[in-house]
Specification:
The protein is α/β, with parallel strands linked by helices. It has 2 domains: 3-140, Cytidine Deaminase, domain 2; 148-363, Dihydrofolate Reductase, subunit A (3-Layer(aba) Sandwich), CATH 3.40.430.10. The chain is 30% helix and 24% strand. The strands form 4 sheets. It has a 9-stranded mixed sheet with strand order 11-10-9-8-14-6-15-18-17, with helices on both faces.
């Protein structure tokens, strides 16, 4: 491993992140082809998951790929899906060396891609920037290892941890720069998730706005009985941008039919108390291909996810306003009696968003 390997892998990882939120159910991979210290090809997984990053980079490089080093952010695939294996494409192109940080957790690959490359006489090196790569691909891996997607929980809070006043007013606690950051975060996830209470109270669109044309995230609502307004923005746009409703086992047939006619996909789940069981619902979302889910509340859904240890990363936007004890808490009851049993996270990043503070926490 050299400092150049570190540098080029960092660039490949940055390329891969361009595809986040766009490539599900496939991973968002980046690929950089270097020959004589010059970039001859670059690519990232395209919307919908294909073509793969390696294919894009190889097409750009053409004959210049022969003898080059390929920096790929995940083990090249070795199975025939809707496209041929990327390891075969790299072999056919005549690359001399492949640098890739981590092996794939997909059982159809899982080391076989590296093996095929080595058998073809290609030098393979692994481990470079492996921690970054694992974080970027964690949601894709978790579909296989934990049967659920990666979950990011976003909270926009007052100084005293409230998300709304006692009357339910919440627009806007944080400023425009924080809200723009939220749109950027939505764009890097496959789906945006809210609870039924938030869908009823806020009538949200849950779309990515102000960032140009792109594949919109799936809008997901956890609603036990589907008691959601058919006149709201979600219902009115379900035929254009996907809306998935995770509901309990006993819903009114006419209500269900009305939502299906509006264009929504209905996904049945078991219950946990009076709420949709979050573990079962997330497993269903993973079965549907989702790898990264961005949860925007409200408080009951946030507490449900935390209680069940389903939050992988927290993005908290704190505003310089106090709403008092009568306001709505950002996180509902957790039933914690001892500090030792409280969910704990490690600070990953801290920045300013105009007059607000943006802090990022990851599971310990």
């Amino acid at each position: 491993m050299t400092s150049k390997d570190e540098k080029y892998m960092a660039q490949a990882l940055a390329l891969g992140r361009r595809g986040m939120g766009q490539t599900w159910p496939n991973p968002a991979v980046g690929c950089l082809l270097i020959k004589n210290d010059r970039v001859v090809g670059r690519g990232w997984t395209q919307p919908g998951g294909r073509p793969h990053a390696e294919r894009v980079a190889l097409d750009m490089a053409g004959e210049a790929a022969r003898g080059a080093t390929a920096y790929v952010t995940l083990e090249p695939c070795s199975h025939h899906g809707k496209t041929p294996p990327c390891c075969d494409a790299l072999i056919a192109a005549g690359v001399a060396r492949v640098v890739s940080p981590i092996s794939d957790k997909d059982p159809r690959v899982a080391g076989q891609g590296f093996q095929r490359l080595r058998e073809a006489g290609i030098q393979v090196e692994t481990g470079i920037r492996a921690e970054e790569a694992y974080h970027d691909h964690a949601g894709f891996f978790m579909r296989f290892t934990q049967e659920r997607p990666w979950v990011t929980l976003k909270l926009a809070l007052s100084l005293d941890g409230r998300i709304a006043t006692a009357t339910g007013e919440s627009q806007w606690i944080t400023g425009p720069q924080a809200r723009r950051k939220v749109h950027a975060l939505r764009a890097k996830h496959d789906a945006v998730l809210v609870g039924g209470g938030t869908a009823r109270a806020d009538n949200p669109a849950l779309t990515v706005r102000g960032l140009g044309e792109r594949r919109q995230p799936v809008r997901v609502v956890f609603s036990r009985s589907l008691d959601l307004p058919l006149t709201g923005q979600l219902a009115q746009t379900a035929g254009e941008i996907p809306v998935w409703l995770c509901h309990g086992p006993n819903v009114d047939a006419q209500v269900a039919r009305s939502w299906e006619e509006a264009g929504a996909k209905l996904l049945s789940s078991g219950l946990s108390g009076r709420q949709v069981n979050p573990t079962q619902a997330l497993a269903t979302l993973a079965e549907q291909g989702l790898t990264r889910v961005f949860c925007e509340g409200g408080g009951s859904l946030a507490s449900s996810l935390l209680i069940n240890d389903l939050v992988d990363e927290l993005h908290v936007f704190s505003a310089g306003v106090a709403l008092g004890a009568e306001g709505f808490p950002g996180i509902g009851g957790l039933g914690i009696e001892e500090l030792a049993s409280a969910p704990r996270f490690e600070l990953s990043d801290l920045s300013m968003a105009s007059g607000d503070v943006h802090h990022v926490w990851r599971r310990k």
